[in-house]
Amino acid sequence: MTNTIRDRKHPIGDTLNAAIMILLCVIMLYPFWQTVVASFMSDSEYLTSRFKVLVTAPTLASYKQIFADGTIFIHLRVTFLITVIGTAVALFMTAYSAYGLSKPFKGSKVVMFLIVMTMFMHAGLIPDYMNYKELGLINHFAVYIIPYMINTFYLIIMRSTFMEFPKELEEAARIDGCNDFRIFFTIVLPLSKPILAAIGLFFMVGFWNTYMQSVFFITDNELKTVQEYLQKMINSTQDLESVMLAESGEEGFSTETVRLANIVMVLLPIISVYPFLQKYFVSGIMMGSLKG
């Protein structure tokens, strides 16, 4: 009788959960969808009806203005290089450090304590600036990479994963003459793809959203990130003059639609990565979950 009552309650609970999840998805996705839709509006349509689910007369005027100006691509190139190089370096350094720390050695608890303390203690912006200046990192591309090669939080997650790694495989590899370096590359990394993909995705998003370093440590405009460019463009009081694209016959763009189109172009590259890594995401997080 109890099981029958529970079975009857499940459809209602599942329906309620589905409805809540759909509502949350709509709430979260609508601002992005509205941004995309508005970026394809003409000046006149945007001024008369900004909030639309679909565009009445789509136009590429705003995107043509972006390509004609070309400034955003300078900063996109910088951010793209930061993301690719930074993710590769940070993922390798964090994983290799986590693997080493997952092995028992004298003073390992002290070392881990000192590493964990870096999550809670930070010198501040001025000491960072002075330190980077002494190292020659100010106004240098390396300031985006070197200070962030190892992430303490991700290191702890990966360390817990490697601690659960089957010891028999490593022992068999050592019998065959493999050293720790070869074991790490030929056995540990291939079997850790889910956690590497999940952590790598977090690294990619973090490096793609690089902003503060560009503001405080970079003065050369050629090395500025796209996030700072986007912030300056959105907050700029300078208005773009509405124009008519006579050659294509399209209506003109406005300052707001160009800004929205820039936002879409900045979001699109990083969003396109998610579908390729999504299948590893859940399993990677579960592998790296800390156990009490």
UniProtKB/TrEMBL annotation:
<dbReference type="Pfam" id="PF00528">
    <property type="entry name" value="BPD_transp_1"/>
</dbReference>
<keyword id="KW-0812">Transmembrane</keyword>
<keyword id="KW-0813">Transport</keyword>
<dbReference type="InterPro" id="IPR035906">
    <property type="entry name" value="MetI-like_sf"/>
</dbReference>
<keyword id="KW-0472">Membrane</keyword>
<dbReference type="InterPro" id="IPR000515">
    <property type="entry name" value="MetI-like"/>
</dbReference>
<feature type="transmembrane region" description="Helical">
    <location>
        <begin position="260"/>
        <end position="277"/>
    </location>
</feature>
<comment type="similarity">
    <text>Belongs to the binding-protein-dependent transport system permease family.</text>
</comment>
<feature type="domain" description="ABC transmembrane type-1">
    <location>
        <begin position="76"/>
        <end position="276"/>
    </location>
</feature>
<keyword id="KW-1133">Transmembrane helix</keyword>
<feature type="transmembrane region" description="Helical">
    <location>
        <begin position="72"/>
        <end position="98"/>
    </location>
</feature>
<keyword id="KW-1003">Cell membrane</keyword>
<feature type="transmembrane region" description="Helical">
    <location>
        <begin position="141"/>
        <end position="162"/>
    </location>
</feature>
<feature type="transmembrane region" description="Helical">
    <location>
        <begin position="12"/>
        <end position="33"/>
    </location>
</feature>
<feature type="transmembrane region" description="Helical">
    <location>
        <begin position="110"/>
        <end position="129"/>
    </location>
</feature>
<feature type="transmembrane region" description="Helical">
    <location>
        <begin position="183"/>
        <end position="208"/>
    </location>
</feature>
<protein>
    <submittedName>
        <fullName>L-arabinose transport system permease protein AraQ</fullName>
    </submittedName>
</protein>
